[in-house]
Write a structure and sequence with these properties.
The complex is a heterodimer of chains A (156) and B (416). By secondary structure, chain A is of the alpha+beta class. Chain A is built from 6 helices and 4 strands. Chain A has one domain: Sufe protein. Chain: A (Alpha-Beta Complex). In chain A, strand 1 and strand 2 form a beta hairpin. Classes of the chains: A alpha+beta (156), B alpha/beta (416).
Chain lengths: 156, 416
């Protein structure tokens, strides 16, 4: 176990220069995810068009470097993706983090860099917060028949 | 064992350290620097040996058997109670009730005393820096009874406004429940004054002494305290054992929280009567090994000397506050003056999240706590979601504080 496993350069880059940070105009999915145990907070905005493609994704929040960089990486991974592909990316990430499954590296992109977090079990929840929030947002959006949804998610 | 030292000579940290086997451990191939004592303390060999001796040579249930092992276990268990009573200067050993820890002790008062003495419209006074264990039981009591909680004014360093406190008492004020030392800020509260003012209004006071009794000489009679709760594991003892001290008359009037073995006088089919203190409040087979271990911990602390422990920690705290406040971008919480506080030091490093700080320090072998420290209302008052916290004890050294300062500087550089 070394610090480099946790704080890979890619992760630190997303932490220092977050991508897609800030509110998204005309978002039709607005989510808030919190981890009450550590206080990490993520706000997530998605724009899903009528064809079921995520045309925009952004985040804001505060918390540790892992939670914030993971959210930044996630927005990049899903922008421009049809919902089915986004679900596949989420499954890749959660499978890698929670079950140790090998992800489709091409599909997951920078998210692969977070694999080292698995060696720091107490930090896994930091990495998956935004992804769990996204998953719930997509599920609620589908359940609402594509209507605008605004929801809060709390890790237990 | 440690060689007793005079107050003038101070505490021999090297000799103390040799009594704690875990301090020789390596973490991530670095020597362990254990600075998470407010969460739990390490255990001296004397405590570990007391546990092993009990299990290996006289393990038996207490107050039951007529056989030799049971008699010895009973004697050792009761001897531990007497030693704890002497340690806090209780008037009687039966004013020491063994519990699982501070949390159970406070819940025991909230149920056994609170349900009998607090009703709708009554008030309980607390501070905003209480640990959840001295907050949630009172919220639960308030919800059961319709009582309300009021908060004693204090500043962000945890200093209580005694004049404002004195004006808070009203005819329906039933209890003051307050920490003796904040587990986040390190602030030592003016317990004697708080109790004296409350008693002028015939209001009893519960002191959450989980952070104070391990580190300061505490005399419950000199304080005139009514209830005092503390945990064994934060004062070199095992986990799962703690104490509720209560004034005899108050404990006598309390209802038991747990019905069962040991706590009864006569049991009939539809009713029972309770036995005397302390057993009335200790239903079921207690943590016998834990109590014996706590007795050994108390012996150890008294051999070193509580004034020496306090003086050593005070010196280290002052050193740490000076060193850390000189670090660029490090924000310290709690009183700036070491005289007003114990060795619990919460801090924030630049804008690096405390969990990242904790992980980086851990990589250097330094154990600190990062999080809300079971004090979410206080975190809100401080305007942070979490802090990192280093907390000192008798075996810590200035060299370890240097390691912490170096580690913090490295963490800050890492994230810049």
């Amino acid at each position: 176990m070394t610090l480099e496993d946790l704080y890979r350069e890619v992760i630190m880059d997303h932490y220092r220069r977050p991508r897609n940070r800030g509110a998204l105009d005309d978002a039709n999915v607005v989510m808030e995810g919190v981890n009450p145990l550590c206080g990490d907070e993520i706000k997530l905005w998605l724009n899903i068009d009528d064809a079921g493609v995520i045309t925009g994704a952004s985040f804001d929040g505060h918390g540790c470097s892992i939670s914030q960089s993971s959210a930044s990486i996630m927005t990049e991974a899903v922008i421009g993706k049809p919902l089915a592909d986004a679900h596949a990316v989420i499954a890749d990430f959660r499978g890698m983090m929670l079950d140790g499954d090998a992800p489709d590296e091409l599909r997951l992109g920078d998210g692969v860099a977070l694999e080292g977090v698995r060696k720091f079990p107490v930090r896994i929840k930091c990495a998956v917060l935004s992804w769990n929030t996204l998953k719930l947002g997509l599920d609620e959006h589908a359940a609402a028949g594509g209507q605008r949804v605004e929801l809060q998610h709390s890790e237990s | 064992m440690v060689v007793p030292t005079s107050a003038a000579a101070g505490l021999d940290a090297a000799a103390v350290r040799a009594d704690f086997p875990v301090l020789a451990e390596q973490v991530h191939e670095r020597p362990l620097v254990y600075l998470d004592n407010a969460a739990t303390s390490q255990k001296p060999r004397a405590v570990i040996d007391a546990l092993r001796t009990y299990y290996e040579t006289y393990n038996a249930n207490i107050h039951r058997g007529l056989h030799a092992l049971s008699e010895r276990a009973t004697a050792e268990y009761e001897d531990a109670r007497a030693r704890v009573a002497r340690f806090i200067n209780a008037a009687h050993p039966h004013e020491v009730i063994f519990t699982r820890g501070t949390t159970e002790a406070i819940n025991l008062v909230a149920r056994g005393w609170g349900d009998e003495n607090v009703g709708e419209g009554d008030e309980i006074l607390l501070t905003e820096m209480e640990h959840h264990s001295n907050l949630v039981p009172w919220q639960m009591l308030a919800q059961r009874t319709g009582a309300s909680l009021r908060y004693i004014p204090m500043d962000v360093e945890g200093r209580i406004d005694l004049q404002a406190y004195a004006r808070m008492f009203r005819p329906r004020t039933r209890l003051v429940a307050v920490t003796h030392m904040s587990n986040v800020l390190g602030t030592i509260t003016p317990a004697a004054e708080l109790i004296e003012i409350a008693h002028q209004h015939d209001v009893p006071v519960l002191l959450d002494a989980a952070q104070s009794i391990p580190h300061l000489p505490v005399d419950v009679q000199a304080l005139d305290a009514d209830f005092v709760a503390f945990s064994g594991h934060k004062m070199l003892g095992p986990t799962g054992i703690g104490v509720l001290y209560g004034r005899e008359a108050l404990l006598d009037a309390m209802e038991p929280l747990f019905g069962g073995g040991s706590m009864i006088r006569v049991v009939e089919l539809h009713q029972s009567t309770w036995t005397a203190l302390p057993y009335k409040l200790e239903g079921g087979t207690p943590n016998i090994a834990g109590a014996i271990g706590l007795g050994a911990a108390v012996d150890y602390l008294q051999t070193v000397g509580m004034p020496e422990v306090t003086a050593h920690e005070h010196e280290l705290t002052e050193y740490a506050l000076n060193l850390l406040s000189d670090l660029d971008g490090v924000r310290l919480f709690g009183p700036k003056d070491a005289r007003d506080r114990g060795g619990v030091i919460s801090f924030y490093v630049g804008d690096v999240h405390p969990h990242d700080v904790g992980t980086l320090l851990d990589a250097d072998g330094i154990a600190v706590r990062a999080g809300h420290h079971c004090a979410q209302p206080l975190m809100r008052k401080l305007g942070v979601a979490a802090t990192a916290r280093a907390s000192l004890y008798l075996y810590n050294t200035a060299a370890e504080v240097d390691c912490l300062a170096d580690g913090i500087a490295r963490a800050k550089a890492f994230f810049e």
